[in-house]
Write a structure and sequence with these properties.
Radius of gyration: 23 Å
Strand content: under 5%
Distance between the termini: 35 Å
Structural class: mainly alpha
Shape: flat
Mean pLDDT: 76
Low-confidence stretches: 6-29, 47-51
CATH class of one domain: Mainly Alpha
């Protein structure tokens, strides 16, 4: 059984207290023509300026928290954390996959199958082929473990 981990990455910039300096290499255009070329190469368009929010994706925090609970065998807490991650980001395929794993461990095979189906769809739409294939294989295994019902 594969367990998908997603790490939370943060960048910390600290000012050293010693005389050590850090060189920053920047490309600064020197003429108006250079500036226009720089903007063109970097996709700058004054009419289409987009502000990118530095807000962290809190769903990754809850995904990580769920992973910690899962690793410690605290499946109910893990389920709660994964559900919180999905409330914050309903496109978090790893949270669906991992919650499916928890549901499977807790004996909720139908819930596990539903979560794995969502994970499969999202991984496929995001082009994450390895995770898509892994989730699909796990989904098939779970579906095959269910008793077959006869249709009369």
């Amino acid at each position: 059984m594969k367990f998908i981990f997603r790490a939370i990455t943060s960048l910390v910039i600290a000012t050293p207290l010693s005389a050590i300096t850090f060189l920053v290499h920047a490309q600064i255009p020197k003429t108006i023509r250079d500036r226009a070329r720089f903007d063109e190469l970097n996709g700058v368009n004054e009419q289409k300026t987009q502000v990118i929010s530095p807000q962290p994706d809190l769903s990754l925090f809850f995904l990580s928290l769920g992973n910690s609970y899962f690793g410690g065998g605290n499946y109910v807490e893990a389920m709660t954390a994964y559900t919180q991650a999905l409330q914050l980001n309903p496109h978090n395929a790893a949270a669906y996959y991992n919650r499916g794993e928890v549901r499977s461990k807790l004996g909720d095979k139908n819930g596990a199958i539903a979560d794995l189906k969502k994970a499969v769809d999202i991984f496929q739409s995001q082009g994450e082929q390895d995770n898509y294939q892994d989730a699909l294989n796990h989904l098939k295994k779970l579906q095959n473990s269910l008793p077959q019902t006869s249709h009369k």
